[in-house]
Design a protein that fits this description.
Elements lengths: L6 H43 L2 E3 L6 E3 L3 H7 L2 H32 L6 H13 L2 H11 L6 H10 L11 H26 L4 H9 L4 H12 L1 H17 L2 H7 L11 H11 L3 H25 L8
Helix pairs in contact: 1-13, 2-13, 3-7, 3-10, 4-7, 5-7, 5-11, 7-10, 8-9, 12-13
Length: 306
């Protein structure tokens, strides 16, 4: 050849370039197998099952179309679970965002013992939701509960937190907030440490109070983090609350603390309504998809990025 390179060398060089292009896809094959096997395939199968009525023994499937969905929206128990989920998620998200931001401000202050406080506050994030539910159920136990005793002795609040309304839902919300809050605090602390000091110093020179600086400067600058945490908290409270509810109240009293995810569990495993449960999982998927789309489409316009 004119440049002195043999066809063998050019072919070998081309093979190396081709292998470099293919290698990343080969390395991703195990990940694709896991995702398809444990996420995409079960999701697709749930969509399929939502169109069928399955016998209790699973040996017969009858195509019913959208009748499972129609039956759900005519079921007063399912509509009650929707209402409970809306109240539970909304209240929990508001509380956890406010408390996490406030505690992060306190932890961001350079005071003695702050590392110890951080370690203690982050402990709940390391335990499972079932353990968190067990711990709070013990604290509010009407017989031996430490918190129940003090509320009864000093404040006259003598109620059964597991069987009385609205205390059962309040207990579930408190447990869920306590479990999720460390996750939010970690992000808020990271954001607070990245806020420019000169911005706060300029506000101080202009005579701004601590309240004004916190809610007019600091909180708006952390809006991208708040935006992210709201979405993550909604997902967490929608799906990760099952273990807490199952341990603390088991959906009671009646269906008072039964959320959509716990209703799905009851229909799928307690009552063996496979088709109905599959339809419920599809509804949950649609709800989360719509919430995420609406918030990213409309909420992002109000987010301030530095």
């Amino acid at each position: 050849m004119g440049d002195g390179q043999s066809p063998f060398i050019l072919t070998k060089w081309g093979d190396r370039r081709m292998s470099r292009k293919i290698l990343p896809y080969i390395l991703l094959i195990p990940t694709f197998i896991v995702i398809i096997t444990f996420i995409y395939w079960p999701a697709a199968y749930s969509f399929k099952l939502s169109m069928y009525r399955v016998s209790p023994f699973g040996n017969r499937m009858i195509f019913v179309g959208l009748k499972n969905f129609k039956k759900l929206f005519e079921d007063t128990q399912y509509l009650t679970a929707m209402k409970t989920t809306l109240i539970y998620v909304s209240v929990s998200v508001i509380i956890v965002i406010f408390l996490s931001f406030t505690i992060s401000l306190l932890l961001n202050m350079k005071v003695p013992g702050t590392p110890i406080y951080k370690a203690l506050i982050f402990i709940p994030y390391a335990i499972s939701p079932a353990i968190a539910g067990t711990l709070w159920a013990f604290l509010f136990n009407p017989v031996v509960g430490f918190v129940h005793y003090n509320l009864s002795h000093y404040f006259g609040i003598n109620v059964d937190w597991f069987t009385e309304k609205p205390y059962a839902l309040i207990l579930v919300i408190l447990t869920s907030v306590w479990k999720v809050m460390p996750f939010d605090i970690i992000f808020y602390l990271a954001g607070l440490q990245n806020i420019p000091e000169d911005v706060l110093e300029a506000a101080t020179l202009d005579g701004a109070s601590s309240w004004t600086k916190t809610w007019k400067i600091v909180f708006p600058l952390l809006s991208p983090i708040t935006f992210y945490l709201i979405i993550m908290n909604i997902i967490s409270f929608m799906f990760s609350s099952f273990a807490i509810i199952d341990v603390v109240t088991r959906g009671g009293p009646g269906d008072y603390t039964t959320t959509l995810i716990y209703r799905l569990y009851l229909d799928a495993f307690a009552f063996q309504k496979t088709g109905i449960a599959a339809a419920e999982s599809v509804i949950l998927f649609i709800i989360m998809a719509v919430v995420t789309f609406i918030y990213f489409y409309f909420g992002e316009r109000r987010v301030h990025y530095q």
